[in-house]
Amino acid sequence: MKTFASLLVLSALTTAAYGQENFKCPDDFGFYPHHISCDKYWKCDNNAAELKTCGNGLAFDASDPKFLTENCDYIHNVDCGDRSQLEPPIPAGKCDRLYGVFADEAKCDVFWNCWNGEASRYQCSPGLAYDREARVCMWADQVPECKNEEVAGGFSCPAAGEIANTGSFSRHAHPEDCRKYYICLEGQAREYGCPIGTVFKIGDGDGTGNCEDPEDVPGCEDYYGDLDLKSIRKSELLAGLQSTGASRAAPAPKNQKPRPAPSSRNAPEPSNN
């Protein structure tokens, strides 16, 4: 058994040595791709070849026509061509490999950027989910691995024909956040956010509404707390957001109030106890 293992090790060393001896530097200095492995490359210094390996999850970018660039990039950014072999994955926590961008297995709107085994958490904007193939945040209903209800916080669009005069498009208030709202398009819910300084006001008709000033929306007057809304509305940030109405990263309002629950005729009177 020991003899067989020794032969295997010797064979591997012989193959590696042959590969090193067989490669001849085209020039005195340069960096050249390995003919089989995408994460390996040759470093030539004074016409002496040294076999190098990129970090686990990186591949050698051989796009420099002069072969003067030593660049290991994320595997998904490199055109490996026929160089199909890679080193086995080395998992580390949330990282499938030591380097790379990986989807979270539990939440489809979360992904991890890994560098040398250290994972940094990122989350898509409301209503979006991380697409594993495109490696960008897309609408949740366009991501096969994601259930739209998960990103929409359990919100489900009304059934077809349930809301009159809205067709396949309707808007609905978020149950907890005055600034957020849902748009239903062909039965798919997408979460949006009003521009900073405004909140969502439910319209007169079912499935309608617009972003308005907080003072004009009962129950949401104090959503932004002590923030100076006049200054915010004049800022370049708000000017940029006004054009889209999309939810962007914004400072969290202090002591923001949740959206008041819809009133009900049969609801019990509040107790003073």
UniProtKB/TrEMBL annotation:
One of its GO terms (molecular function) is chitin binding. The keyword Signal applies. Residues 1-19 form the signal peptide. GO terms for cellular component: extracellular region. Residues 240-273 are annotated as: Disordered. The keyword NADP does not apply. This is Chitin-binding type-2 domain-containing protein. InterPro entries: Chitin-bd_dom, Chitin-bd_dom_sf, Chitin_bind-dev_reg. Residues 263-273 have a biased composition (Polar residues). Keywords: Chitin-binding, Disulfide bond, Glycoprotein, Repeat, Signal. It comes from the Eukaryota.
